[in-house]
Amino acid sequence: MPPTKTALCSNCRSHLDNFVAEATLAKSELSELLQRNRANDIPKTPAERSQMKLILDEAQGDLGWCDQAISDLDKQLAKLKKCRRDILRKRIAPRQSLLSPIRRLPPEILILIFTNLDLLVAHNYLFFWQNRLESEIFALTWVCTQWRELVLSQSQLWARFKVELALFHEIPTQFLNFAIECFKVRSGTAQVSFTLVGYSDTPFTLPILDVIPRAVERWKAARFEAATAKKFVEFLLERYFGPGVTTFPYLESFALLANEAEKSKVFELIRSLRHCPRLRHLSVSHLDPSVTFTVMTNLTSLELRDFAGHCLTQLLKQCPSLKQLTVRNFTQVQVPTADYCHTRLSQLNIEKAKGGLGTEWSSGLRLPALTHLLFNYQSESWSEALQELANLLLRSKCSLTQIQLTKNYIADSDASAKAKFLSDVSSVIAPDARIDF
């Protein structure tokens, strides 16, 4: 058994304490030395200089002893740290693991816990020299044989994955086989949620693409990101959204982020999503609300990365069930021609609104259910934009519980514009509302 009080014997501690007491300079002596240094009071006689050199040699000897003692103690400390790690790893951790309450849970409860962890298997190609999959799910398979068999038998635990594509060296066959094992074999016939990311030089002939099921009836959530890739949407249309592919029975969330050059292809792909009875969340880089998209009828959440030159009212008319709307790069060209009241929208985020937004972008629009508002403006003057926003809120007679106003260019008149805005809309701000500027 180890000693109960200290790892140093009484003789060692006594010697160390005595040495520290003797080697430490008295406060009065230190003050005298500092005073002599300030006054440049150098030793004047040979005897005085010799005496000071003797004291200096003695101090340097003590310093050498300290260095040696520290080196010896560091070695002892390293041994103790290694011993501590071994105790934790070999004696404590295995026994704690065996005594853990989760070990006694039945398989059906473990499955519920593992499923709620929402584990993601990620294939990361940002660094071309790394061919690997990353996921916490692998750690679950290392706990014990029973857990491994349980995890491998549950296809839904392997049904969330992310694949990143880039121009890199040839994929090793062994890694590709393991990726297919994880993404395709282990997921079985479960509904899948996946993200596919492409980059500017992505070759769309990579064999890793085979892990994404072409059977769209298995898609639960699909996200395609390639804002810098060329002909990415064209590739998607050919591979996954060919003629006759219009029904996505289990699709709940869909995202498509592409570059400006493929805007028309984005519209074509969104139009192909004709029968999506469960689709509630949509995120796209481009969308023209003047075109009718049947997929938008049942949406509760919509995010548009580029909403330049379109009509907000026209967009909301296509989404009667919408509760949350986020639009970016918003500039107004089309002025609403008719009044419209959207009764369900509770959260409106307008990000990166531009100077050309105009003064009538919300004319006739009412949002009585609105509770959360975010407005980010990117122009030097935003008084007109705030006034139009105030008109929208007052016309809506809503009750705001959270307001966030931000501006990229700060001007001296901003403070007064904010104060006027808050004063104008005070009647529609809840008493306990959170206001951020």
UniProtKB/TrEMBL annotation:
Under SUPFAM superfamilies, the record lists: RNI-like (SSF52047)
Query: Which Gene3D superfamilies does the protein's record reference?
Result: Ribonuclease Inhibitor
Xref: PANTHER family: F-BOX AND LEUCINE-RICH REPEAT PROTEIN 6 (PTHR38926:SF5), F-BOX DOMAIN CONTAINING PROTEIN, EXPRESSED (PTHR38926)
The protein, known as: F-box domain-containing protein
Q: What species is given as this protein's source?
A: Collybiopsis confluens
Q: What is the organism lineage in this UniProt record?
A: Eukaryota, Fungi, Dikarya, Basidiomycota, Agaricomycotina
